[in-house]
Amino acid sequence: MGLGGISIWQLLIILLIVVMLFGTKRLKGLGSDLGDAIKGFRKSVGADDDKPTPTVEEQKGQTINGEARKVEDPVKKD
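Above: the chain sequence. Below: its structure as tokens.
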């Protein structure tokens, strides 16, 4: 390979050293924890998309960041 390239043999040696240092049980636990964290992140990001958008009636008089916000009806009744 050229300069800066990592061959498959170098990757295998690095993997062997990591397994010898940490052990397979510890690496398995680390992988499980990382997988659970990713699942929790995806669930929390997806939870925001499931909320319905509030109607105009629900938004009237709503306070956002300490400021009162008035929402006008799209169809005015005179």
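Strands lie at 63-64, 67-68.
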